[in-house]
Amino acid sequence: MTWSIIHREPDSGRIAIAVATKFFAVGARVPHVAPQRGAVCTQALVNPLYGPHGLRLIRDGIGATDVVRLLTAPDAGREHRQLHVLGADGRFAAHTGVECVPWCGHWIGEDFSVAGNMLAGPQVIAETVRFFRENASMPLARRLIGAMKAGERAGGDKRGKQSAALVIWGDQDYSELDLRVDDHVEPLLELARLEAVSRERWTHFRAFLPTRENPAGIFDRTAIDAGIERSLAAESR
Fold first, then answer.
1. Is residue 84 within 8 Å of 33, Cβ to Cβ?
2. What is the pTM for the complete model shown?
């Protein structure tokens, strides 16, 4: 009932997930990220325990293939589940149970993976992969949304559209971007709109937030406002 993409930027280590489905609030259950370590997407007849358990395994240094095995082996419902994982070893692995509703399947690459079930056909995964591969120069959030739109144009979830989500995590213990469209007639278009709104102020403001390196951050409102204006002016050139 869902397709999703997990990506890790080779240079920065940023981890990002985009997902869309004909189901309510997909962002609440599918994407899970351990910053700079790994990620889990749990979908199909979703097992919500896979996310937190998988992240614990990743934080313990477990590689992708073993994370998938350790999550699915004890689960009597595993043949109804789908998940894909970025493990602590920097590799990707996936499981698509034989009872997942067709079309279902996954694709594994060096720096990203895509998995989906209850899709219009294999072309949904293929087009998502193609767009993401061919548009490496795009800003990450727009590249992810564009890839999901390409999959949707190829048929997407064969039942229709309802929700979508996008998360990007950098090297801090909070996300750089966390967008959710829980119920909408055009969730990917709404996700793209929210991403554009985030660039009006949020993406510039987050540079002043507290970090591990600077636990107080910048709290002088005059300095924050001036910095945001400079950033906006530089972006518009």
1. no
2. 0.96
